[in-house]
Amino acid sequence: MLKVKYNLKMIPRFNIVKFSNAFKINSITLRLLQLRNMSHLKYESGPIKVAERVAHFKQDVWSIFTPLAAQLKAVNLGQGFMNFPPPDFVRKAAISAINTNDCNQYSHPKGRLRAREALAKSYSPLFDRTLDPETEVITSAGANEGLYAIFAGFLDDGDEVILIEPFFDQYIANITMNGGVPVYVPLRPHGDTNKIISSRDWKLDINELRSKITPKTKILVFNTPHNPVGKVFSREEMLEIAQVVQEFNLLLISDEVYDRLYYKPDVHERIATLPGLWDRTITVGSGGKTFGTTGWRVGWSIGPKHLIKTVLAAQTRIVFCVNSPLQEAIAISIEEAEAHGYYEENIALYEQRRDKLCKALSDAGLPYTIPQGSYFILANTKRINIPEDYEYPEILLNRPKDFKVCYWMAKEIGVVAIPPSEFYSEENRHLGEDYARFAFCKTDETLEAAAKALLKLKKYINE
Ligand SMILES: Cc1ncc(COP(=O)(O)O)c(C=O)c1O
């Protein structure tokens, strides 16, 4: 090999590739030559350019309204987190997991065996099949990261994903950051929305759904019990959706994070159990919603081996593994939940909270949608009469009407709710503008304080 002796400054700029091939120089020498070759380039100073995939993100609704609640000392029925502690057996499980040595180290990217076994055992009867904890169950960092991993695993650039509006707002970024294109179809309320209606009255027009399908459609995202409407889809409604996904060979993501929260007489049925759907459905769940531990960030996905293996491939490169002790704690909680009668008791508690908030809204004179499941109530704010010259902060000036109504309500009434137009596309935003979403995963004291404050609304409501 030819040894090159030189003084860098003496070397003129030249074609490095041709030079290195001709003289077979080693890699360090090559790098030095490259640097010398680039030394004439000028680098501009200034802000670092943001990637296109996040550049268009607007400030999210949570980071506007959660701090607002604190700042105004308003009753916070905005974000869907519990302001009461998880049950004793769930907290004890976390403490015992932290005190178990191997629980503090990496877990398998699929999830801890104990968690997968607990999930398989508890969900097998609900899916009418024996779930294999090795291949059909995977844990995730909250349901949200599970959804991200599914989109990462199945979307190529330009693939379309159908979302039913209103939708959980994180879907959008999860899809677009993975090259997908969201396509929208709304649920529409039927009946007189100036009166109290049921979430059953919010319906999907199946022909409208069909009209949105193109050769690029890859995935349909379905959510029941639904956030924010509270709808629990009936078997008949699900059968119609099942027919569409089969006809067009779509992957179905069934977001069932509120699967343990539905109110009599409704029952939550799993769309993956309908004929022909198991093979094309991934069902997503959340330990945070189930056990009142939204900050633990433990969720899961259940589906056939050929789909879960792709979720695993993506997830291994996203988080590698889910935090170990809290995964173990969720495993123990699932193992013990039935013996504690937890699921039934929890439903009964949430039903009382729901009824309390419904009464508070009725007393205040606001019509609303009675939810069949989940822990949200959509109230119709159309008849609230806000003074025309009311002043709003700058960040709200270009936002839809419901952002302004929710701000006004936080400031003048003292209760924070979430503007649901955030859960709609631009084209259908108007469908959400006359609503506010109230969360009732709150203590009795909080709900009572909200009820008292909401009475102040009465004088602003047009008859
Ligand atoms: C419909 C829906 N899906 C998914 C999630 C995310 O759940 P997790 O907190 O487990 O990530 C939420 C949380 O609000 C939700 O409402």
TrEMBL record:
Pathway: Amino-acid degradation; L-kynurenine degradation; kynurenate from L-kynurenine: step 1/2
Reported cofactor(s): pyridoxal 5'-phosphate
Keywords assigned by UniProt, alphabetized: Aminotransferase, Pyridoxal phosphate, Transferase
Highest taxon above the source species: Eukaryota
Listed GO biological process terms: kynurenine metabolic process
Cellular-component GO terms for this entry: mitochondrion
Annotated ranges, domain Aminotransferase class I/classII large: 75-454
SUPFAM superfamilies the record matches: PLP-dependent transferases (SSF53383)
EC number: 2.6.1.7
A single MF term (Gene Ontology): pyridoxal phosphate binding
Enzyme class, broadest EC rank: transferase
InterPro entries in UniProt: Aminotransferase_I/II_large, Kynurenine-oxoglutarate_AT, PyrdxlP-dep_Trfase, PyrdxlP-dep_Trfase_major, PyrdxlP-dep_Trfase_small
Subunit structure: Homodimer.
Family classification: Belongs to the class-I pyridoxal-phosphate-dependent aminotransferase family.
Protein name: kynurenine--oxoglutarate transaminase
